Amino acid sequence: MQLARDPADPPPASRSTIRTTLRAAACLLLATAAPARARAAADSTSTAGWQLDATGLAYAERQRTDVLEPIGRITRIFQNGQTLSAQLAIDAMTGASPTGARPSSQTQTVTGASGSSTHSVNEVPTHKFTDLRAASELDYGLPIGTLFSATTGGRYSREKDYQSVGVHEMVSLDVLHRLATVTVGGGYDRDEVFPVGGTPRPLVDSGEPRAAGRDPKRVKSGLVGLSRVLTRRWLVGGNFTLTREAGYLTEPYKVISLIDPSDDAPTGQLTEARPASRERRAALASAVYHQNANVLYLEYRYYWDDWGLRSHTLDGRYLIQLPDGAQVTPHARLYTQKAADFYAPKLDVNAPTPEFATADYRLGPLDGITLGATYAFHVPGNPGEWSLRGEYIRQWGRGPHDPGSSLDTIPAVDIGSVVVGYSLHF
Is the CATH code 2.40.160.40 the one for domain 15-425? Predict the structure, then answer.
């Protein structure tokens, strides 16, 4: 079972990013997989039965966030090709997340909504957190004839400061004598944000009182895609996704440092502010080439949005069949990102306050590399297939201001993850 994460997004660095990638996967990855299973079941009644998929993820950022995530999915495949799937995921997250405040050449003591904290010289200010997220999903796949299939699904997730309810629909049509497949889909999420300690006002002193209550967030997403069999060995495809977000999009726990330009010393902190709407777009091109036994997978993704963020992702996998029936798949991914228009690692205390500003490095200029491999195997005398995946991620970048200052450099983050999976058809 594939881990529920958009592979083209930068590595998660906080609860917010983890939440976003898991929800995006529910709309795109899971919904896309269900029509494929339905078509496979329609082609052969021998596939009717039950399918169990389970994974366990251990994810760790050095001196930052740790995540343990078990996921279980059960699918009923009917004789006529219909499928009904249910999934449950639990995310246990602990660690420390960067606040957005700039490191200082002096010891800093900061008071905010979550209390006071002291940070040593040149230390990246962070705040500690623990959270538990539960997410459930339900998908129904329906083949209509041999060329058309549809999937309808819903999902719900809840954590201590966030709730999400969503639905999605995906339809696929085989054309050109089943040599090409057209896919169209969409999703809608109705979310609510209720930060611990209340919602901060934008670009005010971070110690000011916060407002109680819930803030709405709405997400609409759509996808159109085409895949084409070119030869017996070569399959190509592409898709375009459009996502529109509206509502509370600011990170309530992030701040931005005020700096006195005369000595580059911090004088205080403001809460960050982001626009109340965002339009995301992504274009993906992929190719699969099947050799005699091995398979090469290549993907390129270009992402852009109206916040000024731009990114390029190149992803490659090479599946190698081993003599004992096992498989090993090396994996490499390169990622580069241009900063959002309102990203700034600091603000001049003497300058006018901008309308929007964030020092969240996830919206800054970033580069990343991922190296890993997956090993899939069968245990002799036992049903089902096991898989083990390990990956190392290195993420780094620099701030757009004062490039010669080490304090404005986005520090490198080392990330490791291990995923154990099991799949059984019965």
Answer: yes
